[in-house]
Specification:
Strand content: under 5%
Order of helices and strands: HHHHHHHHHEEHHHHHHHHHHHHHHH
Main location: membrane
CATH superfamily of the largest domain: Amino acid/polyamine transporter I
CATH class of the largest domain: Mainly Alpha
Mean pLDDT: 84
Transmembrane segments: 33-55, 61-80, 92-113, 188-208, 220-240, 252-270, 290-315, 335-358, 385-403, 409-430, 451-468, 480-500, 507-523, 529-549
Helix content: over 70%
CATH architecture of the largest domain: Up-down Bundle
Domain Cationic amino acid transporter C-terminal: 511-554
Low-confidence stretches: none
Shape: globular
Number of strands: 2
Number of domains: 3
InterPro entries: AA/rel_permease1, CAT_C
Number of helices: 24
Distance between the termini: 16 Å
Largest sheet: 2 strands, antiparallel
Keywords: Membrane, Transmembrane, Transmembrane helix, Transport
Strand order of the largest sheet: 1-2
Oligomer: single chain
Amino acid sequence: MNNRLFRKKSVDQILRDSQEGTGLAKVLGVRDLVSLGIAAIVGAGIFSTIGLAAYNGGPAVSLLFVFVAFACVFTALSYAQFASTVPVSGSAYTYAYVAFGELFAWIIGWALVLEYAVSNMVVAISWSQYFVSMCSGFGLHIPKWLTMAPGYALDAQAKMLEVGVENLQGIEKVALQAYQTAPRIGDIPIIFDLPAGLITVLVTWLVYIGIKESQKASNLMVLIKIGVIVAVILGGIFFIKPENWTPFAPNGMGGVLSGIAAVFFAFIGFDSISTTAEECKNPQRDLPRAMIYCLVICAVLYVLITLVLTGMVHYSDLNVKDPLAYVFEYVGFDHMAGIISVTSVIAITSALLVFQLAQPRIWMTMSRDGLLWKKFARIHPKYKTPSYATIVTGFVVAIPSLFFKMDFFVDLTSVGTFFAFILVCGGVLYMDHSGLSKKSKFKVPYVNGKYLIGLGLVIALVLLWLYGQDALQEWRNESWLYILEHKSLTIIFWIVWIVLAVMGYKYNFSLLPVTGILVNLYLMTELGASNWIIFVIWLVLGLVIYFIYGYRHSKLNTGNISA
């Protein structure tokens, strides 16, 4: 059984499978891929979370964007090498099948549902908030009970009964209004987020009718939002007050690093490009280029926009959900604020489009391997898209976005993404060790980590001892039970670094993929224990499905194809 669980697919077999009657239209060039990547990366992050990051870290958060972009490069290079070696639509799922075997491939494919489908629930709910705000700006007021998850309204009603209506804050008052004005079936109020559901249906329809149509829509939306972001940067320069940049890091490195998970989340999306590999004209050449171009372009935009925002307005005023529009309202340039509000809706729509494009293609690839039902691999004869998988994705995203609160999904998405990134970086080490890298058209630049990985570990431990005594003292004051519950990932981080140092010395591991593993694992330690409990439950559910269906129907395990 163990042999079956970890049986690998060869690159040649994967390429043959991808060419047998899939019928996907090969229409994407490097410019289209860059556009899709920017559409995924420059989404809700630059129009919302950038404000909170600046509020916590001050102007120095611009350096955090540089650091995170630099960290993402290690992962992007690993993705690029795999994409040039295995140019099919499965993304990290397929890469894990080549490097680690079927069980790991299933686990990562299941985790990618969190990155794409579940993250799109967050994006759809965020889109709804911006859309409702934009409509209000134009004098169109949508009934409150049609604009939010019922949980918000029920919480507001419970709090009002506990503390009184006069003690409710902004969004809570809106939620209470939704509860009080909603139609009812008996005593049950009818409350749901209609805009979130509708935009998901519309985007799913666009993805269903063709990759070419999706690409054209994405290109147009990217052009609009990049144009506005450049206008914000150029226009905002004239309102910058250098004194707002002092102090540069008001809350120290702790304040800057507090936003590291949110800032990293702003960069994920470059991997979604790899799910369109079978619709690329020249995937082995264009995919690696597009991934690197996307990161560089988005990093420059993020850094510049952060410097402009913190220069126009004092960082302490930036804890708002729409910081780009807010800063121009602050300086009295209301017309620009209105344009930005409209653009934010377009920006988030484009991110929704790309992730809604990615999820069906991963399910299609898993179905092709026999791990999911055959219908998921069905290609529409006219539109040349994975039709059934696209429709299922629409339902999976639209229904929860109607009824669930956003914060239920946010951190789950990050866990799934970090998990995928680590396996892809680790997969490059396997490719180098096994000789598969010889088939790669693009390779991660090799830097011999034989001594450097261990040297880095020693330096890190010395710095921790010299400058981290406060953190160490905090550990000494906590019980073992608390440490195991809340700090276990930090312990795993140091153990993994020790193992990689030993193995790196033995096998001459390349330094860059190892750095990618360690950076992503460190960022994972920033997530709370509750998120990991939910993630483990999610994985257990996935394993149940695998052993009920995937294990028995896998083409490798039933001998339908040869490894």
